[in-house]
Amino acid sequence: MTGSSLCIQLINPNTSLGMTEVMAATARKVASPGTEILAVCPEEGAPSIEGHFDEAIATLGVLQQVKAGREASVDGHIIACFGDPGLLAARELARAPVVGIAEAAMHMATLVATRFSIVTTLPRTLVIARHLLHQYGFERHCAALHAIDLPVLSLDDGSGMAQQKVREQCIKAKQNDGSGAIVLGCGGMADLAQELTLELGIPVIDGVSAAVRLIESLHALRLTTSKFGDLDYPLPKPLSGRFADLNN
Amino acid sequence: MTGSSLCIQLINPNTSLGMTEVMAATARKVASPGTEILAVCPEEGAPSIEGHFDEAIATLGVLQQVKAGREASVDGHIIACFGDPGLLAARELARAPVVGIAEAAMHMATLVATRFSIVTTLPRTLVIARHLLHQYGFERHCAALHAIDLPVLSLDDGSGMAQQKVREQCIKAKQNDGSGAIVLGCGGMADLAQELTLELGIPVIDGVSAAVRLIESLHALRLTTSKFGDLDYPLPKPLSGRFADLNN
Amino acid sequence: MTGSSLCIQLINPNTSLGMTEVMAATARKVASPGTEILAVCPEEGAPSIEGHFDEAIATLGVLQQVKAGREASVDGHIIACFGDPGLLAARELARAPVVGIAEAAMHMATLVATRFSIVTTLPRTLVIARHLLHQYGFERHCAALHAIDLPVLSLDDGSGMAQQKVREQCIKAKQNDGSGAIVLGCGGMADLAQELTLELGIPVIDGVSAAVRLIESLHALRLTTSKFGDLDYPLPKPLSGRFADLNN
Amino acid sequence: MTGSSLCIQLINPNTSLGMTEVMAATARKVASPGTEILAVCPEEGAPSIEGHFDEAIATLGVLQQVKAGREASVDGHIIACFGDPGLLAARELARAPVVGIAEAAMHMATLVATRFSIVTTLPRTLVIARHLLHQYGFERHCAALHAIDLPVLSLDDGSGMAQQKVREQCIKAKQNDGSGAIVLGCGGMADLAQELTLELGIPVIDGVSAAVRLIESLHALRLTTSKFGDLDYPLPKPLSGRFADLNN
Amino acid sequence: MTGSSLCIQLINPNTSLGMTEVMAATARKVASPGTEILAVCPEEGAPSIEGHFDEAIATLGVLQQVKAGREASVDGHIIACFGDPGLLAARELARAPVVGIAEAAMHMATLVATRFSIVTTLPRTLVIARHLLHQYGFERHCAALHAIDLPVLSLDDGSGMAQQKVREQCIKAKQNDGSGAIVLGCGGMADLAQELTLELGIPVIDGVSAAVRLIESLHALRLTTSKFGDLDYPLPKPLSGRFADLNN
Amino acid sequence: MTGSSLCIQLINPNTSLGMTEVMAATARKVASPGTEILAVCPEEGAPSIEGHFDEAIATLGVLQQVKAGREASVDGHIIACFGDPGLLAARELARAPVVGIAEAAMHMATLVATRFSIVTTLPRTLVIARHLLHQYGFERHCAALHAIDLPVLSLDDGSGMAQQKVREQCIKAKQNDGSGAIVLGCGGMADLAQELTLELGIPVIDGVSAAVRLIESLHALRLTTSKFGDLDYPLPKPLSGRFADLNN
């Protein structure tokens, strides 16, 4: 069998079209021939995600997109924000596989290095990364976390300053952490991975492209989200008001 | 100083008025004289919470209520669903302390027993309880988890069957788990704790009343959610569409 | 029901009357109206507790006080030394709830911040705090531990030097640890919490007052130490010699 | 870019040609068009791997094959034995990515279920699986381990008895473990995954095919084993005697 | 150098002369030629140790004996109760090495098996064993804990019934736990280890004899309790009343 | 019984005769009278072990020596390389006890200090030490790891430079880590332990001598590797080619 003629829904949980484009371009570069990347972001929500509150807002947008994607019979869903907002809720809702970019990047990192470092945006988001490391089981595989101390959207302001700070943090991490790889901690950094990998001479990993390939892999393996047990479809119940459109 | 003349907002994350009433009554029984319990539930959302998807929906309702509560200058917020949905997001949004009923019950359990058991509703919710135990650090303090295998709302159907099953599971847990206490794993069980404590002769703990007292305690200690670091107020950004009412 | 007309026994495990007074005053400030604080310390023992040996001595004094408190039908016991010496032994002996000030402060800290720092006295006591974090499940919630490198009784020498060093360590911890709250690691620091909370603008938590409120809370919840299983009363056996007064 | 025209070296660490064939066939079924599967096994070594001793023998064969594969400029190496024997040593030696089938299966399992069960051959190999779960960070994601209590080569004896026992254990695991997915704990079970997935209605995961797709993914992502730090090429030193052929 | 002409103080923390004799005899059987076993127990204290309260009492007796032993210049101290009561306090007080029988047995068990089971006396003591496994780092090495549900002194009542129950539990543990070794969870079982080892055909480990050999080993290695840092001698302070005899 | 007239096989997993001699001399110094140290190293293999690849080579030599030792009826086997290469495989093969020098040193360290530091050779070997700490359960007992950044054989080059760097790292570790003891992370440092212990005034622990005494202890305790379960003798199977000499 082959990995071709798939449709993967790339969900940017925030409403920034710029970031959606950056991530879509990166995803298309790495996708197999015949894999279509359906890049979407919620019409309503937060322009960027920099904390638990933003994640809660974004999760609703993610779920609406997953529902739409399921109705469009996409072959997989990517949650393209480093906090993997709504991951397990999305897995309940989806028929196809769902992969978050944080888990995708972390899984790949453990395949190429014994320990990795994370470079993300604002310090306040570090707690989210730490919780994910803990939940996914990769705490011991992460040597250190770093923040460039610039907001997510600075990656999209055209100045290149955020990109420069990411680069500096990656160089510092390589020198000081004893890590063999670096995980980029924001979807907005997706387009930096390959050049930084070349410049630094160690794997610098972007979760968006990693997730594309993991979805393709699951599809090729004929594996999808288990509908047995706690990831089964949500129990049917009348969702009221602004949530009515999420009714199954 | 005293614990009197507080207003605690008791947020039932689901839309069931019946459960809201049960929890409000329990909360008022245990509250200090002068503490007002402002019991609310979202107008829109899910009638019950039995998985990650339901939690994601409920979280938005929780945040709306926290915002309303903050504007009404309540002295604390309780998230009255055993999954503590939206806990950290709510802490970002709140000025006053926020306590979830799962953490409240678990904290109290560790003060009266070396290990506790949890009795909850549907098996599919066990994963949520396990994640909370892991995140809060109480994995080793929990000897076993049990599910009565009835939906949340069966606690509210007047038949008493669910209550009977809770009772049976608690008795079984006492006999088999080597636990010194039992944590009730659903807000809808709030009214059962004291009679089961008497009948079983071990602490059977309800998180709603525990949370009321923890909020009062934090207030008396002049402690509130830290606004330094990752629980600081959400960064101001324009939330669009159905989320506009959550703008700060 | 109400929290009034309780008698809480505040046990200072060391023999320092000065520290007993400081802690009693702090406890009374935070206690509910009608709660009496019965502050005691052993007549015999160690003037301060700065290691495992001192703790072992202090534990016997704690148990004698718990026994006396039980005979006086107090409504709860506080072990007011940051190592929580004799906590589980005291719970076996007690009918009423027993709370240690280290656990009390740590529990409260996790309700207001995602991570906390600890500031204590001598470096040699850090191992005790680390063991407690490990045993209580809060290892991941503690970002760092700091010692002022002055003995416990320097807090009681009237010079204010120790208090100044605590203040400096708290400021350093806020700047460097990425913690949202600070736990004061010695009962003798009890009176510093509220002013430091105001000065630093983050929760600085004292376990003595936290424990007072937790005991009141357990009482209001009609929860007490489980007498089923491993916290049941000690098996009756003839304790000889200097321990005879501990016979049940 | 595309995933085509890759050469992946599938290394069966034992000397069983039958098992090599079974795994090669499975690998080819799942490989992308244009991916060549170069299936090899050591000429010398152990006919099956059922303990740490067998693994130690097999590791040398793995390394010889990795060296040969590197000289043949293969694009990736798969260690096709559930203990992932020699994984980190192989990563030191390799230029291309190296993936073990145990890690591959476990990673994929965590993407489709909250917990998985493992079904393997002899009870004495369970310790190896437990160590891998611990090392990879998936301990909490594994609900239970099961052994069919038949040797590895019974999967290759044509009787189908071992296959039947695997099937029975998988059914039992689904019923009893509360797992949403099952990981097959032996390369010799590779050909069973897809039919069992269909029959049981939950993901039953084979590490061989999972590893093929992970190698393809790493290649598409232009990620390879980090040569910075502890996975750098072995330090050149004269290997003597029977090991001379492993000299770099 | 040699292991001869040592004096090891074997401290039975309870006041039972019978148990002291049993343990002394076992210790002498295993001691090197020239090693003298100075078996002592406190004159005052508890006749047996079956909980945290008993341990607290026993700890004081242990410390008095350690002080006496230090003044008598013994070459090492053994704390011969499975809870290792007062271990770290004793290490502060001692110049020579101090070894507890629980840690001794657990360390040895990890050298001969990948996992071990524990067989102890009363169920209420299981919590103590679990805490030690956690503190020493051997949680994962322990497959299961079992209690014969008879008090400690039943081992000393001459009926042999407790010994028979220990034997039955060991046989059950071998059959059911998948453990390669068994740790006897009470000093009163010391004399059973060698015959059970022969009968069961797996290592059945007694901590008393293990501790004797570990002390001899530390002495031969010229290693003793570190007096640098948190195990340094207790800070000199006036211990009052019944504790005055513990003044340094 | 006595510890005399034992034959312990000291296996240096690398082919360096110089290191074998250094370790043999250290072992003989600490051995009991009547204990013979049979020091061996593989005729074929790697001259030093500085990574996973080297360990894999060395493991085969270890197993050949264990087989030879078993045929010569030695009373125990020591794997004298800090990575404990092939430890569990050797335990399967051996009748007598097998102890690795890393585990030996770490076990002893936990008996004399609450935390220890490790000083080893090349940074690339730190991952091996970290994995052992994790596997043995001593992660929390290790405060820090240090590398002198010189290859193993520099310890054998007669210049003393490596020894000087070890000394400097130990002094730094004592000053900065808050550790009470230091574990020497290479068999080639065996002869430094006792002088550094004297100079630094804290236990500096060599695993070679520790292992000698642990083997003697297991023998005195009549404990040997469990042959029940996963450490049972390897299943008989025809090992082919260069491995034929390992056939049972």
Automatic annotation (TrEMBL), chains A, B, C, D, E, F:
The portions of this protein that span the membrane are none
Gene3D superfamilies given for it?
3.40.50.12500
> Which GO molecular function annotations are given, in alphabetical order?
amino-acid racemase activity
| InterPro entries, sorted | Asp/Glu/hydantoin_racemase, Hydantoin_racemase-like, Iso_Racemase_Enz_sf
Query: What protein family does this chain belong to?
Result: Belongs to the HyuE racemase family.
Q: Which PANTHER family match?
A: PROTEIN DCG1
Protein name, entry field:
Asp/Glu racemase
- Tell me the organism: Rouxiella silvae
Q: What is the lineage of its organism?
A: Bacteria, Pseudomonadati, Pseudomonadota, Gammaproteobacteria, Enterobacterales
